[in-house]
Amino acid sequence: MGIFNWINERVDIRGFSEFAFKKKVPVFYGTIWYYLGGVSLFLFAIQVMTGILLLLYYQPGAATAFESVKFIVSKVAFGWLIREVHAWSANLFIFFAFLHMFTVFFAKAYRKPREMTWFSGMILLILGMAFGFSGYLLPWNELAFFATKIGSDIAGAVPFVGDFLLRLLRAGDEVTGATLTRFYGFHVALFPAIFTVVLGIHLVLVQVQGMSIPPELERIPEKHRRYMPFFPNFAMRDALLWLMVLNVIALLAVFFPWELGTKADPLASAPAGIRPEWYFMFMFQTLKLIPGHIFFIEGELFGLLLFTFGTIFWFLVPLLDRKAGKGQRSRFWTIIGVLLIVYMIMMTLWGYLV
Fold it and tell me: What fold is seen in the domain 17-353?
């Protein structure tokens, strides 16, 4: 206790512990969805830890990247496991972040005063997808090279700023070693810095505003509502779920390893069946289905504008859903959410199976 008291006199640890013990979590039929945010945070922590370990051996550059990854998975003790855990936790992070987003949407947890929590969460999801896009190229294998080329070509089709975006992403006109170095900088420096700041804001907002409950439960008098202590009850359940997720990652890493493939050759022709990561597939498949021209607009440009305005529309849901601010549900917004989920699932399956 002497060490605790010494530290407490300087940083007031007791205040944090009292807050943790006083905090309560609502107990109702949807309490299980509260754990999704914690799982996403846990997966991000795994990303940070495994990413740091990979950085000890990874060497960015067209002449060294592929060889260094090959060295990690074949020569470094447990290097293959660290890489597999990093890759699978990245995909599961996006998966749980999407689940978290949709549960927040259907629970109307974005309503006043939690609009900023929704905005910061959306920024974190977009940054997470940017992490995936930038990290995909780092092994410098054939699949990653041509997928990055296609992805950056799509960014280059944006009107007015397309050429700028293309050069910004590629560090030139073509995908080269300079592109790899730039993506490496994005992946290990720029995106983590921004993500950490936004994550800190998001967590502070969640702690200050507390856990949201669906609008219909707010009509129940406070004395009839059920709660559980955040610590240790909720925290122990959260930790148990983290352990289960970690076991799933370990099983996936062992039985479903990510193939390194062959080294990228900029002079080679693109192999058949180039596809993006699964969380970009619904957009990729949509762009493939759009005709060459829609009225006077090029099909690809039309698709980009569609996704841009759709993202902005979804981002501004807390401001557009007026009924949620009054503690009411809107059938219109429920239908929009269901249709979006069905569309994303159907397009993703279409892209992989057809």
Answer: Cytochrome Bc1 Complex; Chain C (1.20.810)
